[in-house]
Amino acid sequence: MLVQKYKDMLSGKSVIRQLSEFAAARGAEIGYENVFDYSLGNPSVPAPRDFTDRMIHLLATREPVELHGYSPSLGITQVREAVAVSLEKRFGIPYRKEHIFMTSGAAGALAHAIRLVAQPGDEILTFAPFFPEYHPYVDLTGAVLRVVPPDTERFQINFEAFEELLGEKTAAILINTPNNPSGVVYSTATLERLTNILRKKQKEYGHEIYLISDEPYREIVFEGEDAPCVSWFYDNTIMCYSFSKSLSLPGERIGYVAVSPKCRDAETMIQMCGQISRGIGHNCPPSIIQLAVAQVLEETADLKVYENNRNILYKELTDIGFTCVKPGGTFYIFPKALEEDAGAFCQKALKYDLVLVPGDTFGAPGYFRMAYCMETEKVQRSLPALRRFAAEEYGYPKRG
Amino acid sequence: MLVQKYKDMLSGKSVIRQLSEFAAARGAEIGYENVFDYSLGNPSVPAPRDFTDRMIHLLATREPVELHGYSPSLGITQVREAVAVSLEKRFGIPYRKEHIFMTSGAAGALAHAIRLVAQPGDEILTFAPFFPEYHPYVDLTGAVLRVVPPDTERFQINFEAFEELLGEKTAAILINTPNNPSGVVYSTATLERLTNILRKKQKEYGHEIYLISDEPYREIVFEGEDAPCVSWFYDNTIMCYSFSKSLSLPGERIGYVAVSPKCRDAETMIQMCGQISRGIGHNCPPSIIQLAVAQVLEETADLKVYENNRNILYKELTDIGFTCVKPGGTFYIFPKALEEDAGAFCQKALKYDLVLVPGDTFGAPGYFRMAYCMETEKVQRSLPALRRFAAEEYGYPKRG
């Protein structure tokens, strides 16, 4: 018989998916350039030219049997070394290849990180607003994901609620900074307070509480932002990285787990990733992508467009009268909807060809997400629609 | 705390891995060309030139944002379509894209296929000799892998033993033809008898028994061999394919699940694969590899070398006096060791720089595997060592 839990998941259709289907259908009618599709977090800037050149060079010069051969189960040795060297240079933490496990994107990294430390009966805490795919990542291991309600003032951490949920069963805390969907970056003060609590509770409970740090947006941080490295603050940190956003390679599925060298049993944990992999059929990310990415570790796509878009949208939204925390990174912004029911709000926006995602999906009802990874010209063209929508449906901006 | 089951797996060091480490170390001493390393199943012929050309063409001509963009969770639509068309043409079975799920190699395919139909409490049966990675694939889902002892006469199926193990709890049968490690191809008679039993037992138990067909060696079949398509025989068949061997791309991690169009709920099963994927962090195989492979579906690497090697080795082994079933495909041969303890036998072979793998690993003690994916010239150079080993250690060939 088919396994019911997967069958059941089919009925819960993704809101984001439905919205992007709407956008595609509407695009077919009026031209996709006229649909202001803020629903999907796909990078809109090309991968660095250098990545393409390195790929072509590998294909043109390397002997195919070697180039396309099996990667060792933890990743290609020189690729792991290059990642470790780059991380050490960047963050001053003495990573070695023994702390690096290459994965198929952040999804692969999180699937391994969670299995390292959590099993049925355990709890993993995360903070709203949060990436909804955390649910299947955690739920299908048999552990439970518990969501700490948001700090709606600043989208940092609601510490009161956090300390209420933290308990003996907490195996790990899963954070995402810069954050999808809020665009907010956790400050030094936030990370200090969080990790002080974790250190205290580790002692109290007599077992490790791991900090799983999901960092696909690490390289998209805007000017003047305090964006510290999570691994600086806490020894038992498992960094999960993806090159999807920094190099604009979401389809090529490449990332890594980097366990802090100060983490207890760090090297064993990386070895364990190889074993987890055997069970979930992960094996390795593709050899050629590993080799090419290792040659462009210090590069990114041209990410400036996201900051420009943030500036334009943040100004317009606040001018109109939206309540909105200013994003410090990513390509998301997460304003308060103009009515309590963000689902109804986003439904009305469709009339203006504005595709927005209700915050309910991210554990923050009453808010909505805009993914502004698109050409700046299109963001600008969307502003009149945004203004009309707020004015006609809600009478914004309100007169003083 | 770290999850103990993965930690425990670290102590069980792979015999194949240890042997290939020996081969590498010995190679550093005397030159790897002088070590007759029959331990590893890595393709030895290059990927088709056309694959390289298509990759370069994609990189040189396609807009990067589109080329490297997210693949839909079931695989790129036109790639799934191309696979379905190619399968229909090849096997006359009306596959449609709705029956195809793109995976990261056969490992990814098996991880999904097993999760579709098995959960804790269920049993999956496989036939010795078998690929040892079936254990983690099945064990880590909570289901149990039960191994049917080998038919040592022909390495087809030991039906008596099979019918004893088949029961109410059997959720699926996992077969691998052409087989690693025996090199044997299941005949029409074997598959007819197997599937007749399954049909009878499905009725008797009142639930489906799925046939999971692991087919990475499908394209490596030697002349004159009866090598029928498994999906012809049984409606509830889940085909798991990989391009690793046929296109010599093991490191690029590309394959698929193809559920038979006649399988009950076939399209639902493919949709379910997308949900399983969310939990194990699989997402999709890399976009560029999907696109390139879809353009060379009708091609293979030049696989003739494996048949030549089979001919040379089979002749030499039987001349020496080994008992040996003639392989019909793959690049493996699985003779009987010249003493009862195949581990001891393979240990002695190392003195002659012959790296052989004991059959215990594959559930067939007393046998050993030779992976003859190497240049024919090297196979030929290994023959004197093989002769000396058999003569000096065991007095083969026997006189009279």
From TrEMBL, chains A, B:
GO MF annotations, alphabetized: pyridoxal phosphate binding; transaminase activity
Transmembrane parts of this sequence: none
Aminotransferase class I/classII large domain sequence ranges: 61-383
UniProt EC number: 2.6.1.-
Major enzyme class: transferase
Entry superkingdom: Bacteria
Record's keyword annotation contains Nucleotidyltransferase: no
UniProt keyword Heme, yes or no: no
Cofactor: pyridoxal 5'-phosphate
Record key words, sorted: Aminotransferase, Transferase
Family: Belongs to the class-I pyridoxal-phosphate-dependent aminotransferase family.
Name this protein carries in UniProt: Aminotransferase
Naturally occurring in which organism (per UniProt): Candidatus Acetatifactor stercoripullorum
